[in-house]
């Protein structure tokens, strides 16, 4: 595999280069088209030779895989187009859309094969055994296993979900072809014609693969949660600066497998030199862009660090919040003192898996803070994370 990459992909190890990444995607698609067409023709010949609907179903599955590879190839070509006036963040999401097309194609093929298999169960036909057919199917299993490892290696190199899905599809194809091969051998050795049932089993494999492919394609389009490792690395990079005392409200917008935009709030001491801190923030943004290949925006949040009243009140409010639920936390804490009352302003972070309504949290905290000091009026904003 590495030899193939060396021959067909220029600068194969420079995967941070978008053109190199596109080359891997196009190469994966081209190999998929070629090998799946070979498998389709071979298995279709075996299907006609043996009269097996399960082999024909498996052949059509390979034809759909070839179509999927064509879509993948085109998608990588289009997703590599640079940003323009209408698409300022590039065309990377085309890769996700292509995955959705592939998934629909797989599902359509699966439903069609179910109809053929049910028909074969109702009206079974004799299967003709052929040694050549068995050899071809065994070689097909080995070839699909090779395609699985080939595509998995590429998907890991360039962090591509669509090629990872293609790899998993190849593994399910290897399993389904193995099942078909067993069906032919069972018919030869014991005389049981389970061809229609095997075809039905293959169809279920195909439908499951299509379902998984749809989930993988739709999730990033809807805006899924970012990888935890990426979040941790971003926060670590921001916190590496001496002037930053905390971070929160990290938001990552995904515009393709290699393109995203992020924003984060950085907490700094309220009495810092604003010009020096602003310059520091600019440097951190540049570091983020160079390290992760993203567009970064950092919002400055001044925090009172030398006011004992504020610090003590914050500790008390944190205890009140933790009494409500230990999974809650706060940030952006500040106090504005007036003639009649003091506004205690902060954000409460509520994880999505906690079954507490925003209103319930706000009203409970307001009441408990007022009980602590009747001149304190809580102004609370809810963050879901």
Features:
alpha/beta; single chain; Alpha-Beta Plaits; Alpha-lytic protease prodomain-like; 3-stranded mixed sheet; 63% helix; 11 helices; 385 residues; elongated
CATH topology assignment of the largest domain: Alpha-lytic protease prodomain-like
- Taken as a percent bin, the fraction of beta residues is 5-15%
Topology as a string of helices (H) and strands (E): HHHHHHHHEEHEHEEHE
Globally, the shape reads elongated
- How many helices does DSSP assign? 11
Helix content: 55-70%
* CATH class assignment of the largest domain: Mainly Alpha
Structural class: alpha/beta
Largest sheet: 3 strands, mixed
Total discrete domains: 3
The stretches of 5 or more residues where confidence is low (pLDDT under 50) are none
Q: Brief overview, please?
A:
The chain has helices spanning 2-8, 18-50, 53-79, 94-122, 131-158, 161-189, 195-222, 228-239, 274-292, 308-324, 358-372; strands spanning 246-254, 260-269, 295-303, 329-337, 342-350, 376-384. It has a 3-stranded mixed beta sheet, covered by helices on one side. A 3-stranded mixed beta sheet has the order 4-5-6, covered by helices on one side.
């Amino acid at each position: 595999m590495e030899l193939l990459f060396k021959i067909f992909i220029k600068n194969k190890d420079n995967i941070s280069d978008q053109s190199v990444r596109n080359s891997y995607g196009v190469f994966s698609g081209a190999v998929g088209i070629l090998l799946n067409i070979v498998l389709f023709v071979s298995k279709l010949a075996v299907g006609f030779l043996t009269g097996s609907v399960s082999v024909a179903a498996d052949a059509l599955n390979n034809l759909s895989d070839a179509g999927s590879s064509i879509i993948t190839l085109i998608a990588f070509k289009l997703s590599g187009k640079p940003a323009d006036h209408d698409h300022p963040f590039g065309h990377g999401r085309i890769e996700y859309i292509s995955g959705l097309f592939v998934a629909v194609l797989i599902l359509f093929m699966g439903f069609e094969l179910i109809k053929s298999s049910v028909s074969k169960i109702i009206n079974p036909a004799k299967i003709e055994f052929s040694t050549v057919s068995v050899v071809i199917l065994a070689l097909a299993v080995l070839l699909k296993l090779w395609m699985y490892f080939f595509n998995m290696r590429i998907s890991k190199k360039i962090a591509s979900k669509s090629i990872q899905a293609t790899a998993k599809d190849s593994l399910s194809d290897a399993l389904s072809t193995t099942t078909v091969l067993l069906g032919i051998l069972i018919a030869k050795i014991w005389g049981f014609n389970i061809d229609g049932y095997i075809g039905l089993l293959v169809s279920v494999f195909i439908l499951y693969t299509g379902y998984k492919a749809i989930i993988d394609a739709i999730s990033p389009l809807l805006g899924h949660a970012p990888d935890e490792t990426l979040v941790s690395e971003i926060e670590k990079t921001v916190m590496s600066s001496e002037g930053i005392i905390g971070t929160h409200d990290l938001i990552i917008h995904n515009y393709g497998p290699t393109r995203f935009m992020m924003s984060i709030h950085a907490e700094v001491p309220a009495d810092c030199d604003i010009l020096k801190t602003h310059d520091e923030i600019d440097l951190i943004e540049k570091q983020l862009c160079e390290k992760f290949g993203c567009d970064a925006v950092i919002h400055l949040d001044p925090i009172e660090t030398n006011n004992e009243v504020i610090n003590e009140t914050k500790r008390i409010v944190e205890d009140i919040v933790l009494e409500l639920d230990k999974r809650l936390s706060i940030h952006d804490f500040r106090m504005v003192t007036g003639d009649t009352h003091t506004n205690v302003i902060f954000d409460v972070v509520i994880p999505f898996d906690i079954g507490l309504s925003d209103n319930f949290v706000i009203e409970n905290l307001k009441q408990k803070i007022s009980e602590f000091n009747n001149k304190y009026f809580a102004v609370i904003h809810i963050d879901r994370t």
